[in-house]
Amino acid sequence: MKEFDIAVIPGDGIGVEVTAIALKVMEKVAAKYAVRLSFTEVLAGGCAIDTYGEPLPASTLETCQNSDAVLLGAVGGPKWDHLGGNQRPEKALLGLRSGLGLYANLRPVKIYDELKGASPLKDSIIEQGVDLLIVRELTGGIYFGERGRTTTDEGYASAFDSEVYNEFEIARIAKNAFEAARLRQKKVTLVDKANILESSRLWREVVAKVAKHYPDVELNYMYVDNAAMQLVKNPAQFDVIVTSNMFGDILSDEASMITGSIGMLASSSVRQDSFGMYEPIHGSAPDIAGKDLANPLAQILSAAMLFEYSLGMGEAARDIENAVESVLKQGYRTGDIWTEGTEKVGTTRMGELVLAAL
Amino acid sequence: MKEFDIAVIPGDGIGVEVTAIALKVMEKVAAKYAVRLSFTEVLAGGCAIDTYGEPLPASTLETCQNSDAVLLGAVGGPKWDHLGGNQRPEKALLGLRSGLGLYANLRPVKIYDELKGASPLKDSIIEQGVDLLIVRELTGGIYFGERGRTTTDEGYASAFDSEVYNEFEIARIAKNAFEAARLRQKKVTLVDKANILESSRLWREVVAKVAKHYPDVELNYMYVDNAAMQLVKNPAQFDVIVTSNMFGDILSDEASMITGSIGMLASSSVRQDSFGMYEPIHGSAPDIAGKDLANPLAQILSAAMLFEYSLGMGEAARDIENAVESVLKQGYRTGDIWTEGTEKVGTTRMGELVLAAL
Ligand SMILES: CC(C)[C@H](C(=O)O)[C@@H](O)C(=O)O
Ligand SMILES: CC(C)[C@H](C(=O)O)[C@@H](O)C(=O)O
Q1: Which residue, A259, A291, A313, sits at the end of a domain?
Q2: Which of residues 190-249 of A touch B (CB under 8 A)?
Q3: Which sequence ranges are marked TM in the entry (chains A, B) (predicted)?
Q4: What are phi and psi for residue B317, nearest 5 degrees?
Q5: What single DSSP character describes residue B319?
Q6: Which chain B residue lies closest to A262 (C-alpha atoms)?
Q7: pLDDT digits (tens, 9 = 90+) for A12-55
């Protein structure tokens, strides 16, 4: 019997609830395909600060490093917002990304037919459907460049941050984008600000070089300000968007929001090998934590991605996705995606429904 | 009779057409209020590259410096896209901004009742109205920081750009935001990425200090990724957004697009004194240039802003705004904002209608 080690970081707030449900789903699917999953739960984020005094204990990182994949809930909350830079829950995310070498964040953004009503965009805009993938560079750029304070000649306090990218970093993420596009609509849009940034100009050069190895994939370029507009105006034009860490942060959140159902969206953070970290894109939502209100579907779909990309079990992933779709078709909704005429259910019940549909 | 010197930069593409019309509107209003406007037309952008071999000739900058205000059309187009960094039409914009010291870009984003149908957002989202002001820092940050290329130890080409802000720059733009908020809904949202960027943390410190002088204005903070979502989810929550050059570039374009009527939006770029540069937020739209298809209303409304802020003629500005609204109420629309049941008119005719309504 095949066995996989999964590091599990429920994290804070609703991360705990949705992860518990996703684990049940994973166990059921594992049983069906006769693989054994060994889960090791570890702390990161606010709960780790409370327990260990630091957002990412070395032991947590180590457990993750020794596993086949990581399932992450959500970290952070107002409880820890007063803490200084290095003691904030978000540091756990950055530490996991860099510590595990997860340089590519893949965020599929899709509007489910059943949930079109939840989109803030007019029907006329989304009638062609929205199904795009944002490939965000995750371990470079201004997130990890030098930063600090200085004083100007006039005596003013000054602060700086550096956006830095090298050929190697750009080429490897570009490959992720082109490979993904091959399995989709074969179109890659590089989003940058090449009319201003030198780093963007390097991105254009390197991505154009990588594109030569993918003659079957179309490459086009778009400035980030225009991309922010086009996502609202005509999201159907996009297939795969590849971009820097900072622009990806902004655009992937904007793109998620146009679906109107953030509680449905999963993401993976990966590297060259099959290892990856999987998490819902929603936050820890402390205001609804522990109230059986959270939508567990994004985390369940994150688990599906984990099966597909880290365990090589595409069929298991399809099973989970189909179960989720069938529950939606049956008309069940958590509060965040509820609309007139559908049946509102809580976190636990939604989990049971997916398990039953499996 | 009062006399004002106005530098006029029609620029490229539809910039030329819409500016010609705005000048007529300005002349009519000037006559009503018995002021004399002396227009000096100068070249910048693509047309300046064609004529002088450079996007911003020194003589253009000088004419602007010696004027009371600048009215700018739009610059750029695919014709000049192949040119290198310093020879691109956009360089004219950057040169004007820094050369004239225009550190604050004010971009009002408003959905006209008559044009709600044009918004890509659902009626339920915009029913509370959208009326916000983006105050974007315009002469600092990563747009003007050091940038360049290096080589990594492994021999990879590497590129960097620096985001740099000092206290002075942040405090002065913050003042613009708070002053503007006082005349509006008294709410300022600082958009940044303070969980990552040191420069954002300095923004928070300095803006909080400035806020002390405006106890009547509410200040809150939002991360840029969240702001990109909230603009789509609930734009009515915003009054004044103040942010860095780069984030402002992205968010102001996104915010403009949610109105669905970019051909209606004006902007001003200002400094401490009354001098300013006024321009529509739309581009040069070379595809429709010279076809009498462009919407001249954004440029007409830019002229209104020029009267108000640089010439101290608020009443004249109101006249222009009322004329534009009345033409919309009468049901006239250029193609970009046309919907079933309204009357489509060209650029020239739209200009005549506004002149008639004045
Ligand atoms: C919490 C924050 C540091 C993080 C980021 O900016 O990467 C988050 O916004 C995300 O996108 O995962
Ligand atoms: C053309 C470009 C350099 C410019 C900018 O990024 O500032 C434009 O996008 C704008 O917003 O005026």
Answers
A1: A259
A2: 193, 195-199, 201-202, 224-226, 228-229, 231-233, 246-247, 249
A3: none
A4: -60, -45
A5: H
A6: B229
A7: 999 999 999 999 999 999 999 999 999 999 999 999 999 999 99
